From TrEMBL, chain A:
Protein name: Amino acid ABC transporter, permease protein
Residue stretches in coiled coil: none
Record bears the keyword ATP-binding: no
Superkingdom of the organism of origin: Bacteria
UniProtKB/TrEMBL annotation, chain B:
Family: Belongs to the ABC transporter superfamily.
SMART domains, A to Z: AAA
Residue ranges constituting the ABC transporter domain according to the UniProt record: 2-239
Taxonomic placement: Bacteria, Pseudomonadati, Pseudomonadota, Alphaproteobacteria, Rhodobacterales
GO molecular function: ABC-type amino acid transporter activity; ATP binding; ATP hydrolysis activity
Protein name: ABC-type polar amino acid transport system, ATPase component
Pfam families in UniProt: ABC_tran (PF00005)
Keywords: ATP-binding, Nucleotide-binding, Transport
Length: 224, 243
C-alpha cells in the first residue's frame, strides 16, 4: 500500500476540467437529438402508422437489445467499410450518433408509456374542441406526458453523460481519453481514474439539482 | 337547423342507440332525460364523434355527415360546429383557466391571440371567475372547473352546445352555481342539447324534453306535457321513480 499522490491528483483536475465542455457537448447534442427522435417514435407507437410501426418496433428492439459499445464500433469501424459516404465520419460524430440512436430507443418507450398515462378526458376534450391529432399531441398530451416522463428522461441523460466515456474507444480525447493518456504517462492509474470518477460524479450530482428544478417547473400546473 | 336521422350505435353487440331521429331548431333548448344506460350520453358523444356512430346522418346547417362513412375532415368540421361540456369537466390540466378558454380559439379557430384573450377575459367575468384566470384546474373547486368547462364551450360560438350530465360529478354544494350559469347560457338562446337528472332545471329552461329508454326516443314534448301529463307508461314510471 502506497500513499496517494495528492499533488498529482490536484494537478490533474484542471487538465481534465478542460475536457468537460466536450463531454457535456456530446451528451447535450445526443440528448436533444434523442428527445426529438424518441418523441416521434413514441407518438408513432401510440397512433400506429401501419408500415412505419413495424420499422419503429424493430429499431427499438435492436437498439435496446445490443450493447452501446457494439453499436459504437459498428458505426465507427464497421459502417464506413460498406457505406463509402461515411468514410469521413469522425469519432465525435459517431459517438453522438450512437448515443442518440441507443438512448432514443429507451426514451421512446418511456415517453410512450407517459403518453398512454395521460387521462382519457384530456384526449376527448382536445377532440371535442376540434383539434387535429397533431395539435392534440403538441398542445395537450405531450406537455402532460413530459411531466410524467421527466424523471426517467433525466436519468437517461445522466447515463448518456457517462456513456460519452465510451467515445475514447473511437479515438476521441474526451475526459476518459485524456485520463487514459495522463495515466499512461505517469503510471499513477489509481489517482488518475479516481480523479475522473469524482469529476463524473460531481457533474451528475449538479445535474440532479437541475432535475429538481425541471420537475418543479413541469409540475406547477398540478400543485394544489 | 340540426337534423339527425336513423343514428345507431352498439357496444359489443348491444344496441345502445336504436335509430335516433331528432331535429333541433336554432336556439332550441332540449333536455334529454331517462334511466341510466339508455344511450343519452352516447347520443351526445355520437353527435361529435367522441363515439363513432354506425349508421345514420347528422346534418348541421349546410353540412351533412354520413355517420357510417364519415371522413377525418368531416368529423373535424362537425366537431368545430359543436361544443361539448363534460361530466368530469375535462379541463386541459396543463393550461390555466384563461388558457383553457383561449386554447381552441388560437389553435383551432386561428384567432389572433389578443382577440382570444379579450374574449377569454370577458367570459371569465361572465362566469364569475375573473380572479381565477391564472389558476390551473387542480387549484379550482369542482364547481369552478365546470364553470370554466362551460366557458370554454361558450367561447367556441358553436351552433350546438352539448352538455353531458354537467352536474352529476359535482358535490351538491356546487350544483347550484353551475345550473345558474347554464340558465344564463340558455337565456342567450344558444342551441343546447342537455343530458341531466336535474328535473326542476329541465322544467324551467327546456323548450322541449325528450324521454329516452332502451336507445330510443320514447316520448317528447314541452316540459309541462312530459312532466305533468306524460302519455307513455315508461315515462310515467321513470318520473315516479325519480320523484
Amino acid at each position: 500500500m502506497r500513499a496517494l499522490d495528492i499533488d498529482y491528483m490536484l494537478g490533474l483536475v484542471p487538465v481534465l476540467l478542460g475536457y468537460v465542455p466536450l463531454t457535456l457537448a456530446m451528451a447535450a447534442a445526443a440528448m436533444v437529438l434523442a428527445l426529438v427522435l424518441a418523441s416521434l417514435m413514441a407518438v408513432e407507437r401510440v397512433v400506429k402508422i401501419p408500415v412505419l410501426d413495424s420499422f419503429v418496433k424493430l429499431f427499438i428492439s435492436f437498439f435496446r437489445g445490443t450493447p452501446l459499445l457494439v453499436q459504437l464500433f459498428l458505426f465507427y469501424y464497421g459502417l464506413p467499410q460498406v457505406v463509402s459516404a461515411l468514410s469521413q465520419i469522425n469519432g465525435v460524430t459517431a459517438a453522438i450518433m450512437g448515443l442518440t440512436l441507443h438512448f432514443s430507443a429507451y426514451m421512446a418507450e418511456s415517453i410512450r408509456a407517459a403518453i398512454l398515462g395521460v387521462d382519457r378526458s384530456q384526449w376527448e376534450a382536445s377532440q371535442a374542441v376540434g383539434m387535429t391529432q397533431g395539435q392534440m399531441m403538441a398542445r395537450i398530451v405531450l406537455p402532460q406526458a413530459a411531466r410524467v416522463a421527466a424523471p426517467t428522461l433525466v436519468n437517461y441523460f445522466i447515463d448518456m453523460i457517462k456513456g460519452t466515456s465510451l467515445a475514447f474507444t473511437l479515438g476521441v480525447t474526451e475526459m476518459m481519453g485524456a485520463t487514459q493518456k495522463e495515466a499512461a504517462g505517469s503510471f499513477l492509474y489509481f489517482e488518475a481514474f479516481l480523479v475522473v470518477a469524482v469529476l463524473y460524479w460531481i457533474i451528475v450530482e449538479a445535474l440532479s439539482l437541475v432535475q429538481r428544478g425541471v420537475e418543479t417547473r413541469l409540475g406547477k400546473a398540478f400543485a394544489r | 337547423m340540426i337534423e339527425i336521422t336513423g343514428l345507431t350505435k352498439s357496444f359489443g353487440g348491444a344496441k345502445v342507440l336504436a335509430g335516433i331521429d331528432l331535429s333541433i331548431a336554432p336556439g332550441e333548448r332540449i333536455v334529454i332525460i331517462g334511466p341510466s344506460g339508455t344511450g343519452k350520453s352516447t347520443l351526445l358523444r355520437c353527435l361529435n364523434f367522441l363515439d363513432r356512430p354506425e349508421a345514420g346522418t347528422i346534418r348541421v346547417g349546410d353540412m351533412t355527415v354520413d355517420a357510417g362513412g364519415a371522413s377525418k375532415a368531416e368529423i373535424l368540421a362537425l366537431r368545430r360546429r359543436t361544443a361539448f361540456v363534460f361530466q368530469n369537466y375535462a379541463l386541459f390540466a396543463n393550461k390555466t383557466a384563461r388558457q383553457n378558454i383561449t386554447e381552441a380559439l388560437v389553435t383551432v379557430q386561428k384567432k389572433p391571440r389578443a382577440e382570444a384573450e379579450a374574449r377569454a377575459d370577458a367570459i371569465l367575468r361572465e362566469i364569475g371567475l375573473a380572479e381565477k384566470a391564472g389558476s390551473y384546474p387542480a387549484a379550482l373547486s369542482g364547481g369552478q372547473q365546470q364553470r370554466v368547462g362551460i366557458g370554454r364551450a361558450m367561447a367556441l360560438d358553436a351552433e350546438l352546445m352539448l352538455f353531458d350530465e354537467p352536474t352529476s360529478a359535482l358535490d351538491p354544494e356546487w350544483v347550484g352555481e353551475v345550473l345558474d350559469l347554464m340558465r344564463r347560457v340558455a337565456q342567450e338562446r344558444q342551441t343546447m342539447l342537455i343530458v341531466t337528472h336535474e328535473m326542476q332545471f329541465a322544467r324551467e329552461i327546456a323548450d322541449r324534453v325528450i324521454f329516452m329508454e332502451g336507445g330510443r326516443i320514447v316520448e317528447q314534448g314541452p316540459p309541462a306535457q312530459i312532466f305533468d301529463a306524460p302519455r307513455d307508461a315508461r315515462t310515467r314510471d321513470f318520473l315516479r321513480r325519480v320523484g
